[in-house]
Amino acid sequence: MTAKVDVRRGWPATGPSAPPRGWSRCPISGTWPSTATVDPRDVGDVAAARLLAADWTGRQVQAVHGPADLTWHGVAEIVSAATGHPVRAEQIGDDDLRPGLTAAGLTERQVEAVVGMAAGLRDSEPEDPRTVLTTTPTTLAAWAHEHLRPLLTA
């Protein structure tokens, strides 16, 4: 039997749509908890730990939620503070999402997949509950300061 691990990452805090500078546009309610503020390095650390565990066999699913549940408005506040640039979150409809995804180079099928996923997540709770095991350490503020701030000051 081949061993396999699935690491589930939350909803991305940024997407391929192209909002006006300083805006974060998403098709999800501004009050919906975003578990997507997961540093990719934390995802890799979780996957590596699971794969290297001596007692691991079969298939396991492991959620990763980042260190805190945030609203999209909270995400905007954190990114604003970390980068020194004002950011605001704006909820958009599915029809407003499509042109940005298309402009980013997604095919029609990919656009509809993202729109469908957003619609499915809009009024739902995260599939996997937050636990000590699913909570990863890197904050959005730390990630934004390390990765976004240099891009905006270069």
Give me the secondary-structure topology:
Blueprint: E1 4-9, E2 23-26, H1 40-52, E3 59-64, H2 72-83, E4 88-91, H3 94-103, H4 108-122, H5 140-153
Parallel strand pairs: 1-3, 2-4
Helix pairs in contact: 2-5, 3-4
- List the strand order in the largest sheet: 1-3
Average pLDDT rating: 78
The span between the termini is 49 Å
Pattern of helices and strands: EEHEHEHHH
Q: Cα-atom Rg, whole angstroms?
A: 17 Å
For the report, how would you describe the main beta sheet? 2 strands, parallel
Q: Low-confidence parts lasting 5 or more residues at pLDDT below 50?
A: 1-23
Outline of the structure:
The protein has 154 residues and is of the alpha/beta class. It contains 5 helices and 4 strands, in the order ββαβαβααα.
What can you tell me about this protein's structure?
The chain has helices at 40-52, 72-83, 94-103, 108-122, 140-153; strands at 4-9, 23-26, 59-64, 88-91. The chain has 154 residues and is an alpha/beta fold. The chain is globular. The N and C termini lie far apart (49 Å). The relative contact order is 0.24. Residues 1-23 have low confidence and may be disordered.
